[in-house]
Queue: 3 jobs
Job 1
Amino acid sequence: MDELIESIRAAVAAEASPDARAAGANACRTILTALEAVAGEPLTAAVTTPSPIAAAVAMLRGVPPDQLLDLAIARLRAALPAGVAAPNVEPLKFHIITLPRGG
């Protein structure tokens, strides 16, 4: 318990690093879980809802990259004002030049 309190003390210091603040927040959650526990029942952590960004990333984690790019392009095209069309883009063409080997 003393370690948890020390983590919280370090987290609330003015010069606390982001890692120290995260450790302090976890210590607070641990203490809160212990205080809300019912005698004789196992400790269970409170269920927290993930942020919307984390939920979106989790949803898109298994999608292939080319499908993600197609989705991004479609969303960007849909965001264009009415009557505006995206110009056609020519694919890149590379000319391969063979150089004579010097000796």
Job 2
Amino acid sequence: MSAFKQSSGLWLKSHRPDRAWQKDFWDHVIRCNEDLGAQVRYVAENPVRRGLVANWWDYPYTGAIGHDLRSVLFDADDLVRG
């Protein structure tokens, strides 16, 4: 992650000087299915916290190709309750 941020940061500095990476990054090890749902929800809510959309499902870049985020969240909830 550090190498990626360094190389892309150099590109940003020369092409988009108004943009920069934040100082650090945060990672989290997923230890159980309950944790997975919480982490997916946290990431999905980022555009809402930033004020880009009112609901995470309205943000066009949420999810992944071939995976419906709603089903991922429901599957994680089912595994926890299981």
Job 3
Amino acid sequence: MFNTLCSSCHGQSGAGDGPGAASLNPKPRNYTDKAWQASVTDDDIRRIILEGGLAVGKSQMMPPSPQLKDKPLVVDELVKIVRSFGQ
């Protein structure tokens, strides 16, 4: 799911350097940033995934994924993947 929804902008390594990132302003979040990782909770990440950046006062370029609302286990796995980039 990460490869399908996220990696085109956030990159395979989570560094915000996917092929779609070049045309975006602001640039996608770099998940390897330890300061950012420490500043957000898992619930924050879940909300961003489901509701998009605009819902949390961030860029509207981060689209919501409402199709995952009824798939909490998928969202939990995405959160784990995002967290894994900060280790």
